[in-house]
């Protein structure tokens, strides 16, 4: 028995969620035990199977932006306007989510630079209530766009969401037109809007700001769709093709512009910003 196998056997139930400071983590795709420090150095991409692990705003901003970026304050919104309660109160769910999260809701913006190019970057955290889009996400999106316009910089967003936040009912769906109008403000200012779709991006987020980028990138194998596969399969009564709703499938069918490995994202974003900003100056 190898040393690694012995260690592995001794800690059978290690998951990132249960033990955030653990030395080892398990790749959710190939089940390989990964030394946390190596996994982090590899940008939370599994060195064995290349699975791109889900990461939060701080890890993402650290990977993409130059040191010295500034995290923007989260806008305050009216909380729990519907006094929603299912098996738990919405306010209790929010409290629990905040207890485990470094930021007060699912979308966090920062201003700074990507390899020397000024940019405002928004990151949606799937770890915060499934990255769901409610009023706080809508308000943060608008704040990100306003700052981009003020800085005359592009707005780059990393999407990750299970969809709209059902606890806010129709108010969550209203964020779809609201964010769409904000994107128009960017366009009116002649500034690029760049979307990086990460695993998973679904529901109302896919149906609004996640699909309106001037350039649409995605991380490898990211799940991107509106309705879930089972719902679609049951509705059309047909077996869905291999790789359906995955980044590579969407790329092959012309829905997105490129699939970019996490290690190449920073450089690719910098190139795309150069290209789009040069086009703006020439216009
Ligand atoms: Zn793996």
Automatic annotation (TrEMBL):
Keyword terms: ATP-binding, Cytoplasm, Fatty acid biosynthesis, Fatty acid metabolism, Lipid biosynthesis, Lipid metabolism, Metal-binding, Nucleotide-binding, Transferase, Zinc, Zinc-finger
Zinc finger motifs (C4-type), residue ranges: 27-49
Residues in the signal sequence: none
Requisite cofactors: Zn(2+)
InterPro entries: AcCoA_carboxyl_beta, Acetyl_CoA_COase_Trfase_b_su, ClpP/crotonase-like_dom_sf, COA_CT_N
Keyword Lipid metabolism in record: yes
Pathways involved: Lipid metabolism; malonyl-CoA biosynthesis; malonyl-CoA from acetyl-CoA: step 1/1
Localization per record: Cytoplasm
Reactions that this protein is recorded to catalyse: N(6)-carboxybiotinyl-L-lysyl-[protein] + acetyl-CoA = N(6)-biotinyl-L-lysyl-[protein] + malonyl-CoA
UniProt-annotated binding residues for Zn(2+): 27, 30, 46, 49
Single Gene Ontology MF annotation: zinc ion binding
Record-listed E.C. numbers: 2.1.3.15
GO CC terms in record: acetate CoA-transferase complex
One Pfam family here: Carboxyl_trans
GO biological process: fatty acid biosynthetic process; malonyl-CoA biosynthetic process
Family: Belongs to the AccD/PCCB family.
Reported function: Component of the acetyl coenzyme A carboxylase (ACC) complex. Biotin carboxylase (BC) catalyzes the carboxylation of biotin on its carrier protein (BCCP) and then the CO(2) group is transferred by the transcarboxylase to acetyl-CoA to form malonyl-CoA.
NCBIfam families hit by this protein: accD
Matching PANTHER family: ACETYL-COENZYME A CARBOXYLASE CARBOXYL TRANSFERASE SUBUNIT BETA, CHLOROPLASTIC
The protein's name: Acetyl-coenzyme A carboxylase carboxyl transferase subunit beta
Organism of derivation: Croceicoccus naphthovorans
Lineage: Bacteria, Pseudomonadati, Pseudomonadota, Alphaproteobacteria, Sphingomonadales
């Amino acid at each position: 028995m190898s040393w690694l196998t012995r260690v592995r056997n001794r800690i059978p139930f290690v998951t990132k969620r249960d033990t955030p400071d653990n030395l080892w983590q398990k790749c959710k795709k190939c089940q390989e035990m990964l030394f946390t420090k190596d996994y982090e150095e590899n940008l939370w991409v599994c060195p064995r199977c290349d699975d791109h692990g889900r990461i939060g705003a701080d890890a993402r901003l650290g990977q993409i932006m130059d040191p010295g970026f500034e995290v923007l304050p989260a806008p305050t919104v009216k909380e729990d306007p519907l006094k929603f309660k299912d098996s738990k109160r919405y306010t209790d769910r929010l409290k629990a989510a905040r207890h485990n999260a470094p930021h007060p809701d699912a979308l966090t913006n920062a201003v700074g630079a990507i390899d020397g190019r000024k940019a405002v970057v928004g990151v949606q955290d799937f770890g915060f209530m499934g990255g769901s889009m409610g009023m706080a996400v809508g308000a943060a999106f608008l704040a990100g766009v306003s700052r981009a316009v003020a800085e005359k910089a592009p707005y780059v967003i990393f999407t990750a969401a299970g969809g709209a936040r059902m606890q806010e009912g129709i108010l969550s769906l209203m964020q779809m037109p609201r964010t769409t109008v904000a994107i128009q403000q960017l366009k009116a200012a002649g500034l690029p809007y760049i979307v990086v779709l990460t695993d998973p991006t679904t529901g109302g987020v896919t149906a609004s700001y996640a699909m309106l980028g001037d350039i649409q990138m995605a991380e490898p194998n990211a799940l991107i769709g509106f309705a879930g596969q089972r719902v679609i399969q049951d509705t059309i009564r047909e077996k869905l093709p291999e790789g359906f709703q995955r980044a590579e499938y969407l790329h092959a069918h012309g829905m997105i512009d490129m699939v970019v490995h996490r290690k190449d994202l920073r450089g690719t974003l910098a190139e795309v910003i150069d290209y789009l900003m040069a086009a703006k100056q020439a216009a």
